Task: inverse folding
């Protein structure tokens, strides 16, 4: 039996999942168990096609993949890479002890390339917390490198990983992406009058208090609330990491670029509780953008 560690996401928290693979006798089949969703079930065909792209064939045996703990729901395509690595280890293509000390996330294309997935940063943070390194797609390397001391192995393809573990090709550790300046926040100096509201904003910003504006439509509530982020200091390192982990799970980090601009959302006044807190199918469009001209929440 062979195995490798991966993670399952519960919000921005990454929980450990052990991918176990065993080759047994019986009817030839490729079975994935462990409460996975449709994307996890389809990983069998992506792994099979990726192996074919490398000139490999799955053994004519019953391949059982167990995602433990079995009672934890698993969703997403990032299980492709750990399943493929565990199968390779069981087949003897990768040395048996090569995957010890590593966790892995990544989606496979049909030609064996490792495709970018969401959640590389929280996965790297979780791997570091388990004293493991993280194997991830090359496109996620700059993002995962922000996790600190966690060892990161960012590979462009399965063949590159095989060569790395066999010692014929060494993959260099990636560097963290840049910190970019965000869009300029609306300035309080643009507001004429509203002295009481300005004073309330300044007190809330200085003391870290909550703030509620009430008044008739058109009285300037949204305009004032949109200027609160401009009064706040840039994100601290801890706040930057926490905010970036949310962006990572939502797939909103490009090329490992982080920003110290404070997040600001403007939900519509008729938004339901599910719309505010999240619900339904996860997409990259679930996070609304600031400055939409709707009633604002800072």
Result:
């Amino acid at each position: 039996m062979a195995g490798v560690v991966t993670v399952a996401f519960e919000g921005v928290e990454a929980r450990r999942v052990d991918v176990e693979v065993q080759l047994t006798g019986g009817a030839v089949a490729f079975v994935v168990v462990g409460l996975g969703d449709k994307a996890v079930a389809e990983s069998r065909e992506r792994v099979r096609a990726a192996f074919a792209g490398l000139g490999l064939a799955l053994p004519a045996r019953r391949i059982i993949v167990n995602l433990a703990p079995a009672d934890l729901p698993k969703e997403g395509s990032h299980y492709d890479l750990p399943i493929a690595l565990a199968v390779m280890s069981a087949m003897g293509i990768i040395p048996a002890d090569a995957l010890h000390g590593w966790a892995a996330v990544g989606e496979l294309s049909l030609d064996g390339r490792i495709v970018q997935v969401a959640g590389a940063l929280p996965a790297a943070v979780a791997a570091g917390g388990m004293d493991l390194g993280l194997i991830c797609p090359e496109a996620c390397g700059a993002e995962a490198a922000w996790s600190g001391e966690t060892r990161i192995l960012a590979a462009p393809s399965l063949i590159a990983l095989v060569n790395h573990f066999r010692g014929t090709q060494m993959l260099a550790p990636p560097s963290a992406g840049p910190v970019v300046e965000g869009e300029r926040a609306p300035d309080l100096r643009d507001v004429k009058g509203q002295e009481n509201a300005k004073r309330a904003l300044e007190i809330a910003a200085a003391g870290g208090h909550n703030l509620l504006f009430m008044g008739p439509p058109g009285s300037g509530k949204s305009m004032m609330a949109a200027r609160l982020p401009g009064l706040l200091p840039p994100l601290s390192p801890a706040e930057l990491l926490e905010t970036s982990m949310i962006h990572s799970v939502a797939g909103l980090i490009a090329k490992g670029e982080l920003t110290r601009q404070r997040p600001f959302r403007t939900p519509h006044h008729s938004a339901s509780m599910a719309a505010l807190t999240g619900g339904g199918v996860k997409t990259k469009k679930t996070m609304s953008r600031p400055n939409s001209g709707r009633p604002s929440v800072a």
Q: What stands out?
A: The chain has two domains: 2-166, 180-277. The CA atoms of residues 138 and 154 lie 4 Å apart. The chain has a mean pLDDT of 89. The first strand starts at residue 2 and ends at 10.
